[in-house]
Amino acid sequence: MTKLKNKKHSLSKKNKASVISSFFSNVFLPKEERAQAKPFFPEGFLPKEERAQAKPFFPEGFLPKEERAQAKPFFPEGFLPKEERAQAEAVFRLMIDSVIGLAILLIIISALNYFQGQVVIQSKADFFSLVRNAVNTPNGVVLKSGELTFTNGFTVDVMDLENEVNLSENCFELRARGGSINASLDGKKVVFNQNLKVIVYVMCVNNFGCKPYIEPDSYSSCCTQCTVSFGSPLESNEYFE
């Protein structure tokens, strides 16, 4: 039993030697050929003599010391040199200031438009109130408003007055001073051609010779007759003979 084991052990040693010998014979060369053969260098490396003459290897993006001294400094994407960065920051601040200034300007304009709109609304209310007071006191006295503000394109016609004061549209005559305020030829409408402040005059009188049933659609048929003038003063008792 012991002899069989030793025999197997010796055979395994011989097999190992044979394998190793075969490996070295395939990979390495004999001593004579090895002296003449070109040294083996891994890919990317050179022999000592060629390495001394070869240009040094530098990773991508880097330069030799001599060239690096002359080259423009490298800055990561999105960063600038100190001088250029200061200029960029100044431009950025200017842009931010401009945006803030524009926002403030828009707020101011919106506020002005709002207050202007409120002034116009109040002026319309004051105008109709003035006409209503004159209709309720048809004694020939001229009623005068303060400065009323109306916008470009604002229009007043006799239908508006009829709806507001409950007096027939045929009983009103509208006048205007001309220029930026124009009245129609039939005295039924007044149009503003620009934003304007104006004083309005209103006078109403009783017409004792009215004939409401004979001529219902005429000015002479009205028992109360009113004249509304934009910017042009009226004289009291204008309608009395």
Report on the structure:
The chain is α+β, with helices and mostly antiparallel strands and 241 residues long. The protein has a domain at 122-230: Immunoglobulin-like (Sandwich), CATH 2.60.40. Helices cover 44% and strands 17% of the residues. It has 6 helices and 7 strands. It has helices at 2-27, 31-36, 48-53, 65-70, 82-136, 158-165, and strands at 143-150, 155-157, 172-176, 181-183, 189-192, 196-206, 224-230. The strands form 2 sheets. Strands 1-6-7-3 form a 4-stranded mixed beta sheet, with helices on one face. Strands 2-5-4 form a 3-stranded antiparallel beta sheet. A hairpin with a 5-residue loop joins strand 4 and strand 5. The protein is rod-shaped and about 150 Å long. Residues 1-11 have low confidence and may be disordered.
Mind sketching the topology for me?
Layout: H1 2-27, H2 31-36, H3 48-53, H4 65-70, H5 82-136, E1 143-150, E2 155-157, H6 158-165, E3 172-176, E4 181-183, E5 189-192, E6 196-206, E7 224-230
Parallel strand pairs: 3-7
Antiparallel strand pairs: 1-6, 2-5, 4-5, 6-7
Strand and helix order: HHHHHEEHEEEEE
Uncertain residue segments: 1-11
- The order of strands across the largest sheet is 1-6-7-3
- By secondary-structure content and strand pairing, the structural class works out as alpha+beta
How is the CATH topology of the domain at 122-230 named?
Immunoglobulin-like
Mean pLDDT level: 76
Shape: rod-shaped
The helical percent reads 40-55%
Largest sheet: 4 strands, mixed
CATH architecture descriptor name of the domain at 122-230: Sandwich
Approximate strand percentage: 15-25%
CATH class of the domain at 122-230: Mainly Beta
Question: What is the end-to-end distance?
Answer: 164 Å
The number of distinct helices, counting runs of at least 4 residues, comes to 6
Using only C-alpha atoms, the radius of gyration works out to: 54 Å
By DSSP, the count of extended strands is 7
